[in-house]
Amino acid sequence: MDKFTTLSAVAAALPEANIDTDKIIPARFLKTTQRTGLGKYAFDSMRYRPDGSENPDFILNKEPWRKAEILVTYDNLGCGSSREHAPWALLDFGIRCVIAPSFADIFFNNCFKNGILPITLPREICEQLMSDSTMGSNARLTIDLPRQVVVRPDGEEVPFEIDPFRKHMLLEGLDDIGQTLQHETEIKSFEQKVAGERPWMPSITLD
Amino acid sequence: MAPRTLFDKIWDHHVVETLPDGTSILYIDRHLLHEVTSPQAFEGLRLAGRKLRHPEMTMAVVDHNVPTSDRTQPIEEPESRNQIETLERNVKEFGVPYFPLLSASQGIVHVVGPEQGISLPGMTIVCGDSHTSTHGALGALAFGIGTSEVEHVMATQTILQRPAKNMRVTVEGQLAPGVSAKDVMLAIIGHIGTAGGTGHVIEFAGSAIRGLDMAGRMTICNMSIEAGARAGLVAPDDTTFDYVRNRPFAPKGEDFEKAVSFWRTLATDDGAHFDKDVSLRAEDIAPSLTWGTSPETVLPITGTVPDPAQEADESKRAQMQRMLDYMGLEAGQKIAGTPVDVVFIGSCTNSRIEDLRAAAQVAAGRKVAEGVRAMIVPGSGLVKMQAEEEGLDQIFLDAGFEWREAGCSMCLGMNPDKLTPGQRCASTSNRNFEGRQGPGGRTHLLSPAMAAAAAVTGCLTDARELV
To answer: Where does [4Fe-4S] cluster bind (chain B) (predicted)?
Structure first.
């Protein structure tokens, strides 16, 4: 996983609430067995017209937002399915940071596992960032993860909260599994304890 | 010890260790796999040279993109075939118990788990699918995870998580005749909204919930995710234990009795704290359905489509208008009487034998309206067999319904069962997002009885008029 430290990039506004994971990537594109290559399907129904051509009115089809690395939306971003294909599609498109007043739990989690930083900020601030993002090629926002601030184009700094463990994992680009396996002794002793306390717990074995 | 909720107790029973920042390593009792969200996780294990820690706590089944027509033929779509074959290679390589496509036990993972007794009360259960919340009906903490977490569970049998907050939704009273679990859950989502449960685990309580059979409780817990909750729970009781007893993978004999006495300790203590507490009266709930493209856009079947002009918030107003345009509806129109093109009875929400019986009760002796395509997709091969033993298949076939094989099917349109642009569908599934059932498709979420009523009348109809 790529580290996330600071990011200075173009931000695109999608001023909608409840952008669901089907909208981020419809189910028919989930038939891959790879994590990569899904960027071309991101926001499929908004980005392309029924004949497959680009919808010129959609923000991510316009310059300079075609190269946006930050998305700003309204509430409950990523609601719906648990598909990690949603952050995979965003990442493959080039998005490294998503900002919204609130997120759906699983999507929020899935972002961190892929080096995407989800930032929760009040709606009024999201509106201000959306307004910043309309300033063409000056629409750059800077995300400073070590200092936990979003720097607006006029230099104003907006602080944000992040769980310290997740911040550490993003800054170092660490893999959760390796971290958890360092607790092997504790996992093993937990398993022994349960085997003693709940010996009736069945195994799944098929003939 | 301070009084604890059902969620608190299951959580406490599974914490391996709490890290200094408050994140817990939570032990997982059951890991369910399907073909869509597992290939990248198996590949990750393989690349890192890691083993799957506990194959005997893991189960795999194909459901999302399997065809629901004749299965003796090869799967036509090459990508679907590849995903299924990839799962088959992976379960073999890693020794995972697997229900193959041609097994009678194959079906939707959230139908198969409880049906086989693989999902049990008090367990932690995860799957790379948001509707894992279904298994909460047994009194298990069950939630959907992403593929990176799937790989984490494969390698460590644990997950990293902070405890959720506790929410309780109480439904007291007697449900009116013709009102089902689906109507109750739609009413709840309509009431609290699609983010109403975010960050929380919802315990469903009250006499109306206690009075539901296990299928109904599964319908309720299934759609907890549509209310934004991390999971849904119903306290295990005699209804639960009667359901679990004698399931193939459930504990047997003396072990079962020991298990039951443990499960009885899990119910929420008197005086336990809930961060959010919501109550609905059963008598107020009517047969319900959605009108828009978010599961919170709920109406009673007797209602009218809302008018965006009445909405004060500008962005909400614009969103409502977009939904109306997408759905091809007019503000103020009566929702009943809207013609439908397709009826889908199935999905992990409503494809169990009880759901099929409710649909058959409406369909019996009637005919599917002209021009309507109506399909029944049982939740598993075993549900299908049971329905055939009861003669339900004949009722449906005589009425002109399609009687299909088990799978996720038109709930999400990953297999050939899809809507075409503009088609309107009365669906017993769980999501009405734009394009969910096929690009441009229009979905109304409703109960099996209401879906059957739409099939035989050709339009959205109050099922109470037909029984």
So the answer is: 348, 408, 411
Nearest to B97 among A80, A190, A205 (CB): A205
Domain boundaries, chain A: 6-175
Q: Is the pLDDT of residue B152 over 70?
A: yes
Residues 4-33 of chain A whose Cβ lies under 8 A from any Cβ of chain B: 15-18, 20, 22-23, 26-28, 30-33
For A73, nearest residue in chain B (alpha carbons): B315
With contacts defined as CB-CB under 8 Å, which chain B residues touch A36?
A: none
* Dihedral class, residue A95 (left if φ above 0, else alpha if ψ from -120 to 50, else beta): beta
B384 sits in which H/E element: helix B381-389
- Asked whether the beta carbons of residue B27 and residue A165 sit closer than 8 angstroms, the reply is no
- Cα separation, B217 vs B244, in Å, equals 14
Residue B310 has pLDDT above 70, yes or no: yes
DSSP secondary structure of B405-447 = -SSSGGGTT-SS--PPTT-EEEE-SS---TTTTSTT-EEEE--
Number of helical (H) and strand (E) elements in chain B, helices listed first? 15, 19
**Is the Cα dihedral A41, A43, A44, A49 positive or negative?**
negative
- What is the ipTM metric for this complex? 0.94
**Apex CA B268: angle with CA B283 and CA B246, to 5°?**
85
Name the H helices within B252-296.
Answer: 253-263
In a structure prediction context, what are the per-residue pLDDT tens digits for chain A, which is 207 residues long?
889 999 999 999 999 999 999 999 999 999 999 999 999 999 999 999 989 999 999 999 999 999 999 999 999 999 999 999 999 999 999 999 999 999 999 999 999 999 999 999 999 999 999 999 998 666 799 999 999 999 999 999 999 999 999 999 999 999 899 999 999 999 999 999 999 999 999 999 886
DSSP letters for B172-226: ES-PPTT--HHHHHHHHHHHH-TTTTBTEEEEEESHHHHTS-HHHHHHHHHTTGG
Contact A27, B436 (CB under 8 A): yes
Whether the bond into A64 is cis, omega within 30 of 0 = yes
Tell me the domains of chain B and their CATH numbers: 1-285 (3.30.499.10), 288-465 (3.30.499.10)
A26-82 per-position pLDDT tens digit: 999 999 999 999 999 999 999 999 899 999 999 999 999 999 999 999 999 999 999
Specify whether the CB–CB gap between B149 and B159 falls below 8 A.
yes
pLDDT value of residue A181: 95
DSSP-derived letter for residue A30 is: -
Beta-ladder partners of A71: A12, A98
Q: Rounded to 5 degrees, what are φ and ψ at B91?
A: -65, -30
Q: Decide: residue A207, CB within 10 A, 0-12 exposed, 13-18 middle, 19+ buried.
A: exposed
Q: A6-175 belongs to which CATH class? A: alpha beta
